[in-house]
Amino acid sequence: MSASETTLLLLIAWFLLLLVSLGALRTSMVMTGKRAATAFAPSGDDLDGFGRRLTRAHANCYENLPIVAAILLYAIATGQTGLTDGLAYVFLGARMAQSVTHMISTSRLFVMIRFAFFIVQLVIVISWLLRLLHLI
């Protein structure tokens, strides 16, 4: 399995882990009577602390996954993973680090760190696209 294929699967696994974690958090709140099952805002703005940060980390994943998945799937389908393999694990690490940083804190410092991880991902995705288009 190429690094691109592995990264794609691990990105999906990471997204699912965040989804299951969010589901478990909400389920525990419902089961303990802290919240009605129908009372959760999709944005997470109605939650405090970690719940809000987890909801946003999960949202960050589904906001970006389609673009990254499409590029990696294209590279896989066209046999061009040699163009994406080199930075695939760097991308994965930056994606996971962004999520973890988001879940830890939303202080100014952590927002700046999280943004740095996002920029790494953005630069990698743009470079992949340009390489796949044979522009660089």
Structure description:
With 136 residues, the chain is mainly α. It has a single domain, classed as Four Helix Bundle (Hemerythrin (Met), subunit A) (Up-down Bundle). 76% of the residues lie in helices and 0% in strands. It is built from four helices and no strands. The protein has helices spanning 3-31, 49-77, 85-104, 108-132. Helix 2 (49-77) packs antiparallel against helix 3 and helix 3 packs antiparallel against helix 4. The mean pLDDT is 95.
- Number of domain modules: 1
Quickly name the level 1 CATH class: Mainly Alpha
SSE class: mainly alpha
Identify the CATH architecture. Answer: Up-down Bundle
How many strands in all?
0
Uncertain segments are: none
β-strand amount: under 5%
Determine the N-to-C terminus distance. Answer: 25 Å
The global form is elongated
The whole-angstrom Rg is 17 Å
Q: Which fold name fills CATH's third level, the topology?
A: Four Helix Bundle (Hemerythrin (Met), subunit A)
* Count of helix runs: 4
Compute the average pLDDT: 95
Oligomer: single chain
Tell me about the largest β-sheet.
none
Written as H for each helix and E for each strand, in order along the chain, the element string is: HHHH
